[in-house]
Amino acid sequence: MSASSMRQNFLRFDKLFKAECRLCHTGKRGPNVLITGGLGQLGTGLARELRARHGAETVILSDIIKPEESEIANGPFIFADVLDFKCLQEIVVNKRIDWIVHFSALLSAVGENNVPLAVRVNIEGLHNVMELSKQYKLKLFVPSTIGAFGPESPRNPTPNLCIQRPKTIYGVSKVHAELLGEYYNKRFNLDFRCLRFPGIISYDSHPGGGTTDYAVQIFHDAITTGKHHCYLRPDTRLPMMYIDDCLRSTIEFMLAPTDKLSTRTYNVHAMSFTPEELFNEVRKWVPELEIEYNPDARQKIADTWPMVFDDSIARQDWGWKPSIPLDSLVEIMITNLRRLYKEKEKA
Ligand code: VAH
Q1: If you take atom 7 of ligand 1, which residue's CA is the nearest one?
Q2: Tell me: the pLDDT tens digits for 154-186?
Q3: Closest atom of ligand 1 to CA, residue 146
Q4: Alpha carbon of 106 to ligand 1 centroid (Å)
């Protein structure tokens, strides 16, 4: 992204943030934000972005696991179990929360190995944050996913509105979140917002047990062992996105004026690739990298998912536009992981 378009973005952002501050009556500061499941792949990055804009103290990371030093270095962290309504309610009241960003969920592969827990966390946990957001008039963001579609949906591309019959408990719970959020918005005027994310790729946070995780692991293997064992077939095409675009889409969408939104749930897309295409891109940086394909149960999941997302509605309604293509993603991942592994060796 050129410097001038970054500056335009920043100015556009600034205007939206000021409007949001007026809305939340928080004066100069931005909204007070609670991030559930904050120690997953997206939480620490989103906290960093939001804190950079409107102060460390206004963004509270929460989770049920103990944080690393680095994860709480630049702002508040609190224990929050999304299954404990009272615990969440106390935080919302005591910390005067304006937004909840609800990242707590068991992802596709992990969920299939523990369906009862996935039902509790992904559905009961969602009900708690939905009810609290309604009760305290919060703005609620819940991510959905390419996993919210199934084999009966058009796969290339998958439009914003079409049949959704996902074949994982993760996908079923995310369709439930989308439908319940749309209902609460219409029935109770809850400011519910939902983006369907592709597989997210990052170097400074780990994915949480999904079907797209290979697209992160291949980079670690390229830097360390030089060999990647891929659990998908070489031709398995899936939508993917670099984390910076994911986090920017979340903040831009959360700040988008309500009157711009023709729906509450949007596909967002950046790129689509197969393991073979990714492997060939990574080999431009690590020529000695080898790959072996051993499809496992996750192949069956991937075969039911979209291959390409149609995100035209998000582009039209609130100006969504990705900025990091595959070649830049590979460069960012390789250069930063080489640096991090070198630092680890020295430590
Ligand atoms: C998963 N990474 O694979 C998650 C994501 C797009 C899929 O929701 O389950």
Answers
A1: 199
A2: 999 999 999 999 999 999 999 999 999 999 999
A3: 6
A4: 10
H or E stretch including 329? helix 326-346
Domain residue extents for the chain: 3-200+243-270+309-324
As a whole number of angstroms, the distance between CA 36 and CA 49 comes to 16
CA distances from 49 to 75, 171, 262, 287, 296 (A): 12, 28, 26, 34, 36
> What pLDDT is stored for residue 1 in this prediction?
46
CATH numeric code, 3-200+243-270+309-324:
3.40.50.720
pLDDT tens digits, 42-100: 999 999 999 998 889 999 999 999 999 888 888 999 999 999 999 999 999 999 999 99
Atom number, ligand 1, closest to the C-alpha of residue 211? 3
So what's the pLDDT on residue 24?
Answer: 60
Answer yes or no: 170 catalytic: yes
Cα(146) to ligand 1 centroid in Å equals: 7
Q: Is the dihedral of CA 33, 130, 36, 79 positive or negative?
A: positive
